[in-house]
């Protein structure tokens, strides 16, 4: 009986500490006060992402870089996809795509690149061009050909939205820390995959890697943005926690290799089943290294 009361007490205490789904919801006198933390809450708040521990290169006994695909059509990955329609929902709930793009536009995220090797940086102007399509109707072209100024009503503007994101690609590093005798994972980059903005209305869409964000530089933004917790809305989970704890399902589509980091699809062509089996083989190879270490 004492154990039962102890567990109940722990649940209530932890719930009181971490209940920030909608701050000040029960004490708000007007809707504007919902979501605003009180001065007492701000003083006692230590809400920061859990910092990575320092890992010396000499402590890394084994390392392997992998690239994975997170399919947003899978139910377990819905927390990264929804909500896609934010017109009739609170401002505290946004999809991962909206969080990333807004933070880039506001300058909170600056480490944005064109590829997963983080070689070429993308400017805000480059990002805007890949997110928005500006076109002209036939009537507008006639105005241009006639030497007249084009009317605003003949200019079509279309933006990519969270609903257009089909999957995320992530790059990470698996390593065995010999000091702690543990296999660990460190997420390095994340990339939304969407149709090319100029093929978005076509029957056959051209899917592209929109941009690569260097994950460690975006952790503060992703920690402040909360995903929906369907089991308990009083305890939302941040996108940083979801990604770092690997609370998603993914498939490895590439590992670093001697063939110029070729993808699984390049040497397992036209056979989806073999590609999935190869992905599992790569996972098992990494996991088996840790188990083999305990056999000697």
Tell how many strands the DSSP assignment holds: 11
The averaged pLDDT comes out at: 86
Query: Regions with pLDDT < 50 over 5+ consecutive residues?
Result: 5-20
Question: Which range best describes the helical content: under 10%, 10-25%, 25-40%, 40-55%, 55-70% or over 70%?
Answer: 25-40%
N-C termini distance: 45 Å
Globular, elongated, flat, extended or rod-shaped: what is the shape? globular
Element pattern in H and E: HHEHHEHEHEEEEEHEEHEHH
Number of helices: 10
Compute the CA-based radius of gyration: 23 Å
- Main sheet overview: 7 strands, antiparallel
Query: What structural category arises from helix and sheet content?
Result: alpha+beta
Percentage of residues in strands: 15-25%
Account of the protein in words:
This is Protein involved in gliding motility GldN. Pfam families: GldN. InterPro entries: Gliding_motility_assoc_GldN (IPR019847). It is a single chain. This protein has 296 residues and is of the alpha+beta class. It has a domain at 60-125 and 163-293. Helices cover 31% and strands 22% of the residues. It has helices spanning 2-18, 39-44, 78-81, 96-106, 124-131, 138-145, 219-224, 239-244, 264-267, 272-293, and strands spanning 60-71, 112-113, 132-136, 155-159, 167-177, 182-195, 207-209, 212-214, 226-227, 237-238, 251-255. Strands 1, 2, 5, 6, 7, 8 and 11 form a 7-stranded antiparallel β-sheet that branches. Strands 3-4 form a two-stranded antiparallel ribbon. It has a two-stranded antiparallel sheet with strand order 9-10. Strand 5 (167-177) and strand 6 (182-195) form a beta hairpin. The radius of gyration is 23 Å and the shape is globular. The chain starts with a helix and ends with a helix. The model is unreliable at 5-20 (pLDDT under 50).
């Amino acid at each position: 009986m004492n154990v039962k009361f102890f567990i109940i007490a722990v649940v209530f205490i932890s719930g009181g500490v971490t209940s920030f789904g909608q701050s000040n919801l029960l004490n708000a006198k007007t809707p504007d006060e919902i979501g605003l933390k009180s001065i007492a809450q701000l003083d006692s708040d230590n809400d920061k992402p859990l910092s990575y521990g320092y890992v010396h290169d000499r402590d890394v006994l084994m390392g392997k870089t992998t690239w994975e695909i997170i399919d947003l059509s899978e139910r377990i990955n819905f927390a990264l996809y929804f909500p896609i329609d934010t017109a009739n929902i609170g401002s505290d709930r946004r999809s991962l795509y909206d969080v990333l793009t807004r933070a880039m536009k506001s300058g909170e995220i600056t480490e944005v690149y064109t590829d997963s090797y983080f070689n070429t940086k993308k400017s805000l102007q480059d990002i805007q061009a890949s997110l928005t399509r500006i076109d002209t109707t036939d009537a507008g072209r006639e105005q241009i050909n006639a030497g007249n100024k084009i009317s605003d009503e003949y200019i079509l503007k279309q933006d990519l939205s969270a609903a257009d994101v089909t999957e995320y690609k992530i790059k990470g590093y698996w390593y065995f820390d010999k000091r702690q005798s543990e296999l660990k994972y460190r997420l390095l980059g994340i990339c939304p995959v969407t149709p090319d903005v100029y093929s978005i209305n076509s029957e056959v869409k051209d899917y592209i890697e929109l941009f690569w964000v260097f994950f460690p530089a975006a952790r503060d933004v992703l920690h402040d943005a909360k995903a929906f917790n369907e089991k308990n809305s009083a305890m939302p989970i941040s996108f940083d926690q979801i990604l770092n704890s690997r609370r998603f399902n993914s498939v490895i589509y590439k590992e670093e290799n001697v063939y110029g980091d070729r993808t699984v699809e390049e040497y397992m062509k036209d056979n989806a089943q073999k590609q999935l089996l190869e992905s599992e083989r790569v996972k098992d190879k990494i996991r088996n290294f840790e188990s083999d270490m305990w056999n000697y």
